[in-house]
TrEMBL record:
InterPro entries in the cross-refs: ApeI-like (IPR054545), HotDog_dom_sf (IPR029069)
Organism of derivation: Chitinophaga eiseniae
Domain of life the protein comes from: Bacteria
Name assigned to this protein: 3-hydroxyacyl-[acyl-carrier-protein] dehydratase
Coiled coil: none
Domain ApeI dehydratase-like: 14-94
Gene Ontology molecular function terms on file: lyase activity
Length: 120
């Protein structure tokens, strides 16, 4: 789990089917020592974990990624230059017990990641 260590949530609005939050990245986290020294970049797997944890908090259950129909990393996140990131996540229950999810990580006009997929 990355929340509370790698990032902290500074604002959150949670309605049925949608979560909007702003998170603050911890630029001193050890992950950035290896990814990459003197040029920190948030790893794509961490962006996916942020989406997973946001969904889990919204639906109050553990989930696993089942299918990623779209996963685009459009811009790098340097936690020193861009310590705050806005996350928008919409979710809809599926008949098989899964969750159809659309998510973006961005700040103002810069989109870092777009995701569409299914968790169960």
């Amino acid at each position: 789990m990355l929340k509370g260590n790698f990032y902290n949530i500074t604002t959150i609005a949670n309605e049925e089917g949608q979560v909007n939050l702003t998170l603050e990245l911890n630029a001193a986290h050890p992950i950035f020592g290896g990814h990459f020294p003197e040029q920190p970049v948030v790893p794509g797997v961490c962006m996916m974990q942020i989406i997973t944890e946001t969904l889990q908090d919204a639906v109050q259950q553990k989930v696993l990624l089942q299918k990623a129909g779209l996963m685009k990393f459009l811009n790098m996140i340097d936690p020193v230059q861009q310590p705050q990131v806005d996350v928008t996540l919409t979710y809809k229950a599926e008949e098989n017990g899964g969750w159809k999810v659309n998510a973006t990580l961005k700040k103002e006009a810069t989109t870092f990641m777009k995701f569409q997929g299914v968790f169960k």
